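for the recovery benchmark. tokens below, seq after
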């Protein structure tokens, strides 16, 4: 059985089962939802998203000629919890892989922040970098990191939309059309 395809290549339900089994055998198992419940199905949908995103990364890296060599460190791409929240749990999970981080570096290499934007940020947040002798450089790095994460997240979402087909029952956990979605307005 097929859970999804990425650029026409199948992602088997067995792959989702295997990923779930690894997670359930980990020390975090007590925090996981019970299998075969609404929340358990949502976990499987999330795991499917991670699997297909890993394959999208591998596909796009091949297409762009990107290798893991020289990949930025995880701490440079995702320095804190805020960065992980900005990029999203699926992308953050995939970025533990050096190939994904190298692709991140390739996709976001041209991103920069104008000095005026850093100066404006400092004007609006005067105490955040108080005492820092190089506040504009620090602010520039902060803003550049946020801009790069946003650009990569958008690029990755577009590539997933172009390359991924999800079987019924393996939709994105946040898809309002799937029956286990509980996010209501």
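predicted aa per position
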């Amino acid at each position: 059985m097929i859970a999804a395809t990425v650029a026409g290549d199948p992602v088997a339900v067995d792959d989702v089962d295997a990923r779930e089994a690894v997670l359930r055998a980990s020390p975090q198992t007590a925090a996981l939802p019970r299998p075969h419940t609404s929340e358990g199905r949502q976990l499987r949908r999330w795991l499917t998203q991670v699997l297909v995103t890993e394959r999208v990364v591998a596909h796009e890296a091949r297409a762009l000629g990107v290798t893991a060599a020289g990949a930025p460190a995880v701490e440079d791409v995702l320095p804190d919890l805020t960065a992980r929240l900005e990029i999203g749990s699926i992308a953050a999970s995939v970025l533990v892989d050096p190939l994904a981080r190298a692709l991140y570096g390739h996709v976001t290499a041209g991103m920069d922040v104008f000095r005026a934007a850093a100066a404006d940020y400092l004007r609006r947040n005067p105490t955040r970098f108080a005492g820092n002798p190089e506040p504009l450089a620090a602010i520039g790095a902060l803003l550049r990191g946020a801009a790069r994460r946003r650009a990569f997240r958008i690029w990755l979402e577009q590539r997933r939309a172009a390359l991924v087909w999800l079987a019924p029952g393996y939709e994105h956990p946040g898809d309002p059309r799937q029956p286990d979605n509980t996010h209501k307005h």
